[in-house]
């Protein structure tokens, strides 16, 4: 049995993950954490999520959580996640990080902190998106420099970071495949007399509207044709399922930093 602690337990993703844990064999909730001052602190997590009493009360401090934890699952906020990772590493709990909005410096720092434990870090836990990342790597390599690359992402109006971590990851995969440095060629929105589009640009546009769960379209625009590769998330269930798959996988791995390509066995395909 894998003992899981969920941070951001009263959030959109945290709630989905706890509900899914209650329906999944081989994994059990032993701790749930929210921000200090959250109105549900001290309440039974199962009760406020409509699952019935679980005996797990919502805590406001991860370090107070059960010593019996095997894995922490974090979908919170970029200001919070570094502390979560430090505490998990100290306690040698494995950790699954779905939180997005991390800078490249923070991502590099995580690589250092988690050397003492095992961590899956992925801005998108869906199987479809991770297959798409694999496809993008191949398509970019085949099409090469003759096709303009534009990424359009759309999310709900409550999303805090832009562009999405998934869109940045897609841009990074394409940049690596084309031998470009994303720091130099990444463009985030356009306005004014910007002149002709330089061929090496990799552009990301972010749309925020209503309750869109998450759409990502990558356009490879050539002369006389364009190729579009699209992923649309219909609900958050696919992210929660991916997070649980990662949690069950990571506890048996060697110490180190992994992503969903490793979890899904896509790395060497
Ligand atoms: P949300 O705002 O609904 O939930 C975040 C929760 O974290 C909130 O309940 C908040 O109170 C809580 N929180 C804040 N500070 C905390 C602290 N110190 N300790 C514990 N909890 C704290 O947001 P969401 O839609 O659930 O998304 C959360 C994160 O996950 C975002 O970064 C989002 O972009 C990301 N996300 C990733 C994936 C993926 O597949 N990797 C999918 C969806 C969302």
Report what the structure shows.
This protein is an alpha/beta fold. About 35% of the residues lie in helices and about 25% in strands. The chain is built from nine helices and twelve strands. It has helices at about 10-20, 45-50, 80-90, 105-115, 125-145, 165-180, 180-185, 235-250, 260-265; strands at about 1-5, 25-35, 60, 70-75, 95, 120, 150-155, 185-190, 200-210, 215-220, 225-235, 255-260. The strands form two sheets. It has a seven-stranded parallel sheet, with helices on both faces. Strand 2 (about 25-35), helix 2 and strand 3 (about 60) form a beta-alpha-beta unit. It is elongated, with a radius of gyration of 20 Å. The protein starts with a strand and ends in a 6-residue tail after the last helix. The model has no long low-confidence stretch (mean pLDDT about 95).
Topology overview:
Blueprint: E1 2-7, H1 12-22, E2 27-33, H2 45-48, E3 58-59, E4 71-74, H3 78-90, E5 94-97, H4 104-113, E6 118-121, H5 127-143, E7 148-155, H6 165-178, H7 182-185, E8 186-188, E9 202-208, E10 214-221, E11 226-233, H8 237-250, E12 256-258, H9 260-263
Parallel strand pairs: 1-2, 1-4, 2-3, 4-5, 5-6, 6-12, 7-9, 8-9
Antiparallel strand pairs: 7-10, 10-11
Helix pairs in contact: 1-8, 5-6
The chain binds nicotinamide-adenine-dinucleotide.
Nicotinamide-adenine-dinucleotide binds next to α1.
């Amino acid at each position: 049995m894998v003992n899981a602690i969920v941070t951001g337990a009263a959030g959109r993703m945290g709630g989905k993950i706890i509900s899914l844990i209650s329906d999944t064999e081989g994994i059990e909730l032993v701790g749930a954490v929210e921000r200090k001052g959250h109105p549900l602190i001290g309440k039974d997590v199962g009760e406020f999520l409509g699952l019935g009493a679980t005996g797990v009360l919502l805590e406001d401090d991860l370090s107070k959580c059960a010593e019996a934890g095997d894995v922490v699952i974090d979908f919170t906020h970029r200001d919070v996640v570094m502390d979560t990772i430090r505490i998990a590493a100290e306690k040698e709990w494995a950790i699954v990080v779905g939180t997005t909005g991390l800078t490249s410096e923070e991502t590099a720092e995580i690589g250092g902190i988690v050397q003492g434990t095992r961590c899956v870090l992925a801005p998108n836990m869906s199987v479809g998106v991770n297959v798409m990342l694999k496809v993008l790597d191949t398509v970019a390599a085949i099409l090469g420099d003759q096709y303009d690359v534009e990424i359009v992402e759309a999310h709900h109006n409550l999303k805090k970071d832009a562009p999405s971590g998934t869109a940045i990851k897609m841009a990074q995969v394409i940049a690596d495949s084309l031998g470009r440095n994303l720091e130099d060629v990444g463009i985030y929105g356009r306005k004014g007399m910007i002149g002709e589009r330089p061929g090496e640009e990799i552009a990301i546009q972010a749309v925020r509207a209503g309750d869109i769960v998450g759409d990502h379209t990558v356009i490879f625009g050539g002369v006389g044709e364009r190729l579009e590769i699209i992923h649309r998330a219909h609900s958050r269930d696919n992210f929660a399922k991916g997070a649980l798959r990662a949690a069950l996988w990571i506890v048996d791995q060697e110490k180190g930093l992994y992503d969903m390509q490793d979890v899904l066995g896509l790395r060497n395909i």
